[in-house]
Amino acid sequence: MAYNWNQIEEDVRLHRQELTDRLVDFALHDVLLYWSPDEKLQKEQEENWMPILQWADETVNARFKTTTGLEAQPATKETSLELRKYIDRLSDKEMAALFLAAVNMRSVLLALALVKGRINAEEAFQLAELEELYQIQKWGRVPEAEERRKDLKASILAAEKYLRP
């Protein structure tokens, strides 16, 4: 999967405020904040996602709230403000990789961890697909979903390679 990183960085420079707004809004509904009511899956989420959430809380100086329901937990104004300040400090290169990774993984928090080197691309993929990989163990593979996962992994690897050639 090839990306025109120069164009993506240029788009970041031209639309940085809008992208930051979108990322902050998106983070408040991050996939890592929605936990399964299934106890076995919830245990895997706790084991695998909680270290990233704790890292994000400490790194961003915020408090991201989880739920097992369908409604998002209301974020405080401080959380939104601190996340915005953190994203504003990113370079255009980091912002470009963050946006691409966040959209593809459905997680700004995982994308931040990838961009800042807290996790690598393989870990980011596994964490982003935790629920789906759990469902595969339960119900088996679906060919269309395999293709989507292959594309997702390629995009995460591309972002990591761009950041750390």
Could you characterize the architecture of this molecule?
With 165 residues, the chain is mainly alpha-helical. The protein has one domain (5-163): Orthogonal Bundle (ATP12-like fold), CATH 1.10.3580. Helices cover 72% and strands 0% of the residues. The protein contains 8 helices and no strands. The chain has helices at 5-27, 39-60, 77-88, 92-105, 108-115, 121-128, 130-139, 143-163. The radius of gyration is 16 Å and the shape is globular. The mean pLDDT is 93.
Kindly provide the radius of gyration, computed on alpha-carbon positions and rounded to a whole number of angstroms: 16 Å
CATH class: Mainly Alpha
**Structural class per helix/strand content?**
mainly alpha
Rounded mean pLDDT is 93
What kind of sheet is the major sheet? Answer: none
N-to-C order of helices and strands: HHHHHHHH
Low-confidence runs of at least 5 consecutive residues: none
Strand and helix layout:
Elements: H1 5-27, H2 39-60, H3 77-88, H4 92-105, H5 108-115, H6 121-128, H7 130-139, H8 143-163
Helix pairs in contact: 1-3, 1-4, 2-5, 4-5, 4-8, 5-6, 6-8
